[in-house]
Every structure is written in C-alpha cells, then in structure tokens.
Amino acid sequence: VDALNGPLEAVEWVGDERGYLKILDQTRLPASVEVIECRDLETVREAIRSLRVRGAPAIGIAGAYGLIVGLQADAGLPGEDVRERVARTSRALRACRPTAVNLFAYLDRLESVAAVPGAASDSGLPARLFAEARRIDAENRDACEAMARHGAALIEDGWGVITHCNTGGLATAGIGTALGVLIRAHEDGKRLRVFADETRPLLQGARLTTLELRRAGVDVTLICDSAAARVLHERRADAVFLGADRIASNGDVANKIGTYSLAVNAAAHGIPFFVVAPTSTIDAALENGDAIPIEERRPDEVATWQGEPIAPPEVAVYNPAFDVTPHRYVSAIVTERGVLRPPFRESIAAALEPART
Ligand code: MRU
Questions:
Q1: Which H helix or E strand runs over 123?
Q2: How far apart are CA 198 and CA 298, in angstroms?
Q3: Residues 180, 152: contact at Cβ < 8 Å?
Q4: What stretch of H or E contains 152?
Q5: Mean pLDDT of the chain
Q6: Engineering a disulfide at 336: which of 75, 77, 142, 143 sits with its beta carbon 3.0 to 4.6 angstroms away?
Q7: What secondary structure letter does DSSP report for 156?
Q8: 3-state secondary structure (DSSP) of residue 161
Q9: Coil, helix or strand for 47?
C-alpha cells in the first residue's frame, strides 16, 4: 500500500469484544504502510511506548482498546476480582507515556464501568467495557468534526499558517485537531499555505504532517523547527495552529517540544497562536502547567541519525519530549464545544460544565 494514496487508519478495532486491535506503525511512515495486529497487552504497550501509535487522542484510544485486548487473555491473579484485574491492566497501560492526559482520562472511564455495583459478577462486563471503548473512539471522531468546524471559521482566505508536530487523522480517531481545522478550511475553499515544522527529534512533522496535508491536497512546505522565526519575520505566516497533550485549568498548554519557543516567537511578531484540542485533553485537576509530567526520552533519539551516531560517544543529552507554553501566549483554544478565549480559567470552566438541557 502506498502511504500517499491508500487508507491510513491509526487505530482500528476488528470484530466484537472478542476481536483484536490493529495499529498502524507510524514509525515506518512515509516509507511504508505496516499494520500491527495486537492480540496481547505487551504488543499494545510496546506500540505506545515506541510511538508506533502517537498523538494524544490516538494514544488514549489505543489504550482503551488495549485494555480490552489485555483482559481477553488474562485469567487474573489468584484472589483477584474483575475490578482489580481491570485496574492492574489499566496501570500497565498508564505507565507507557506520561504527558498526554487522554490515556488517563479514557482509562478512568473504563475503570468506572468496572466499578459499578455488581460489575464483578456480571458476565456482560467485557461487552460493556468494549462498548465504552467504542464510545470513546466515536466521540473523538465527532469532536474532531466539531473542532474543524469551529477552527476553520477563524481562518482567512490566503493565510499562511505554521504548525508543529502531527495533529491529523494519524493522531486522532477522526480528521484531526489542528490539521483537521486546516484541512476543513481548505475544503471550504480558502487558499492556505501551511509551513510544517519538521519536529525534532522524531520528525512527526516531516514524516506525518506533510504526508497528511498532501493527501488532503493542502499546500504544504516543510521547514526546520529553527526556521519558524524566519518565516514569521518574513510575514509568510498569519497564524500558528497546533495541538495539545494536556491543558491545565488556567490554559497552560503542554505539547510537543518546540511549541513553547514557537509561541514566544509568534507573540514577538504579533501573530495569533491557536491551540486545537478536545475537552478530553483538559486536565481540570491541574491549577497550572507546572504539575504536568513531562516525558523524557532516550538520548539516542537526539544523538543518532538513522542508527548512526551524530555526536561523540556518550555525550550528555537532554531529551524532553514536551514543553509547557504559558497561557499568556495562547490566543484561543479551539475545542469541540467552541472557541475558548482568555481569561482561560473562566472559559475552560464554562466549557467543562455539563451541558444543560
Ligand atoms: O510524541 P507524540 O507524537 O505523541 O506527540 C504528539 C503531539 O505533541 C501532538 O501535538 C498532540 O498529541 C496533539 S495530537 C492531536
């Protein structure tokens, strides 16, 4: 299958609750399209840890289905009831990546299905857990549509836009978050030129974002992360649109490393900085971004290139995978419930209120 033309589904469940999970191996893109069949917990965990599946919502959805896969083959430890078995499997999945909150939010939902009174003796529990995972998947697809609609309305004909990392269909169950907005604006007939940061060190921008935008027919130009300030200075960009892995209740945004410097650069040039994320990416328990756990990854992701060293042996490397952008640099947060503006503490709290009927 050719990555530019064939189907690309990040996470796909096959069959009913006794079925299995298919994960597209994004580490192989764009060179080849390879799908991993996950029939045990370890395969799902390895896929999340190695970024075969990545992007906040997609990690969470893979985790939710991963719980179903993990329970299928697990008879339980001696003396363990089903609720404890669910909690143990969930813990193993939660340990895979720390920053994106969707994984934790979705696993919380599955654990609460197992926590209802009588669940432990209910033979229908696997089907109900599976139905919840399906619901999470479908809700994210719908949220992407709504974000695309709200966000596209912000874009003007003829704009240049910088984006960072990958926030498209590969990172979600639907059209994407920030990329969904850009693709929808293009579909609405707006002329758009996107500058995609390559996104060091794992190149999600170069490998995945340019691929997805070309598949959608959007004009895309690849730049080094460090070229963004130059692009802003040259007035080639009118806005920045990107995603988030976790948003604190004051609007501080954790996202792929490099986001913070892009935000500061955008502010210095008077360019609006838009974050696009479903409300499931908001961690209402966090006062601000200081408490967001930032994943640190292996030194060789920075110190090697295609397996070859690009630095002297054993050089010290610091490789944080995410950073936190203070809310003062964020112009708006586009969610499925609408566009949130500063002051974010108020607008986020209002967006999280249960819908009144
Ligand atoms: O390390 P990754 O590739 O999982 O990081 C992904 C990002 O930082 C995305 O910008 C974020 O998850 C939003 S995806 C809709």
A1: none
A2: 19
A3: no
A4: helix 125-152
A5: 97
A6: 143
A7: P
A8: strand
A9: helix
Distance CA 141, CA 278 (A): 10
Measured in Å, residue 293 CA sits from the centre of ligand 1 at: 14
Ligand 1 center–CA 193 separation, angstroms? 21
3-state secondary structure 301-348: HHHEECCEECCCCCCCCCCECEEEECHHHCCEEEECCEEECCCHHHHH
Q: Which of the listed residues 25, 162, 167 should we mutate to test ligand 1's pocket, taking the one with most ligand atoms within 8 A of CB?
A: 167
From 197, 245, 259, the mutation candidate for ligand 1 (largest count of ligand atoms within 8 A of CB) is 245
- Give the list of residues 6+ apart from residue 44 with CB closer than 8 angstroms, or none: 21, 23, 38, 62, 63, 65, 66, 69, 70, 93
Query: 99-147, pLDDT tens digit by residue?
Result: 999 999 999 999 999 999 888 778 899 999 999 999 999 999 999 999 9
Q: Give the H or E element holding residue 241.
A: strand 239-242
Rounded CA gap, 151 and 187, in Å? 13
**Could you report the per-residue pLDDT of 263-275, keeping only the tens digit for each?**
999 999 999 999 9
**pTM reported for the whole predicted model:** 0.97
Radius of gyration of the chain (CA): 20
Identity of the residue numbered 353: E
Q: What are the Cα distances from residue 169, in Å, to 24, 25, 176, 183?
A: 12, 14, 5, 11
Distance, in Å, from the CA atom of 98 to the CA atom of 244, rounded to the nearest integer, reads 14
Residues contacting residue 141 through CB under 8 Å, at least 6 positions apart: 172, 173, 174
Q: What are the phi and psi torsion angles at 327 (to 5°)?
A: -60, -20
